[in-house]
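Worked example

This section walks through a single chain of length 447. The input is the sequence exactly as stored; nothing has been trimmed or padded.
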Amino acid sequence: MKINKDLSYLTNPICYRHSRYIFNRRFLLIVHLMFFVFICGAQDLKVGCAKRVLTPNPLLPVSGGVGLPKPAEIKKGDLYVRAMVLTKGTEKIAIVSIDNLGWPAALGNKSRSLIKEIPSENILIGATHTHSAPDAYAFPNSEGIHGADLEYLDWCTVQVAETIKEALKNTEPAQLKIAVGKAEGKIAYNYYAPDLYDPRCGVIQAIGTQGKNKGKPIVTLVNYAIHPEVIGSNRGILSPDLVGPLNEKIEAETGGMGIFMNGAQGGMVTADNRLADGKEAGNWEECIRIGNLLASEALRIVKDAPVQKNADILCTYKKVAFPIESAMLRFILKNSPLSMGSSDGQSIQTTINLLNIGSAQILTIPGEALPNIGFYLKRKMNTGHPFLFGLTNDAFGYILTKEDFNSFERYKYISRTSLGEMTGEILISASLDLINNSPKPKKTDTQ
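Given that input, the structure is written out below as C-alpha cells.
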C-alpha cells in the first residue's frame, strides 16, 4: 500500500481548514451517534432479580395469627426474601415477596430507609402469607407480652434491603410475557363457600435479550389468591408452605427465579388439601403437590403469551388512612413494640400502589380482601391483564365490604380481625381513584 507522505496540506490554509471541517463534522457525528445509543439504552426496559434465605438458625417459633407463636423443631424448606426490580429511564420499581404471615410497614420502612437508589413509594413489599414463619408483628397476648424475636426481624430488614439492591444491580435488558388465565386443578377453594373464589392466575415473565440470558427467563412472577396454610402453625414445623415448592418448580423449569405475590384471598380462600374422608392433608408432600401444580399452571398460562418489546412501566401511589374500630386490633397495634398505628390509636395509615407493567395493571391491597372485592377491583381496572398484590405494604387483617361486615355467622371471625366496617369501602374508593387518575397500560409492540 502506498502511503501519501505529502504534508503540504498542513501549510495550505484552505486545505487545512477543509480537512479540519471534515474532521469536526465526523467527530460531532460520532458524538451524536454515541449519545443517541446511550439515550436509547437508558430508555430500554431492564429487569433484575435476587433472593436471600431468611430461615432463622436456630429455628424460631412460628405464627399463624393473633396470639403467641408456637415452637418449631423441624424445617421443611427455607424461608426467602425475593425481589424483582424493573427500570426504564428514570422509573424504578421493586416488587418484593417475603415468606411470612404478613410484613408490616414498620419493618418495610426500615428496609426502604436503607435504599437510596429507588423511591420509597416504588418499593412494594408483600408477604406470601405462610402460617409457618416467625412472628413479624410481635402480637401481644392479653397481658401485653409478645413472642417475637426483634433482633431477627431487624436482621431481616437489612437482608430485604440488600436483596433489593442486588436485584437492581442485576438488571439487564428484557422483554416481557404477560398473561392471566384460569389455573386448573385442585389448588384452592373457599372454605366458607367452596366455589366463591377467583381461579385466575396472573403471570409476568421477564425474558433476557442480551448476553448469557438472551432468550431465557430471568424471573417469573406468579399472582394467585390462596392461604398457604397446609402445614399451619400447630405442627412444630417452620416452612414456606406451598410457596416454597412453587418457586422451586418454576426455577427448575425455567432456569430463572420465581416470585409469588398473593391476591385477594380473604374469607376464606385457602389451599385445597381436602381428602375424600372429610379430613385434610397437612404435610409437606401436600405442599409439594399444590405448589408444583400451581407452578405448572402458571407456566402453561404464560407459555404462548406474545413477547412485549421494551414495555413501559409506571408506579404511582396514594396514602390512605383507615380507622381502627376493632378493639382487638387497637390493642395489638398499641401494645406491639413495632410502633404501628397513629399516636392516638384511632387510625393507621398505609400506601396503596398502582403499577402499569406492559399490558398489566396492578393494585396493592394492605391486607386480606375478600374475593368479591378482588373481582370488583379487577373488573374496574383498565386492562385485560389485572393483578392484585394482597398483603402488600401492610397486612391489616381481613377486608370486607360494609354489607358483609358482621353479617353471616361465618363472617364473625373475619369481622373481628378486621380494622372495621368501612375498611373495604375506603380501600375500594382509594383504588378507584388511582385507576381513574392514572394512565392506562399502553399497548406494547409484540413480536
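What to look for: The first strand starts at residue 46 and ends at 53.
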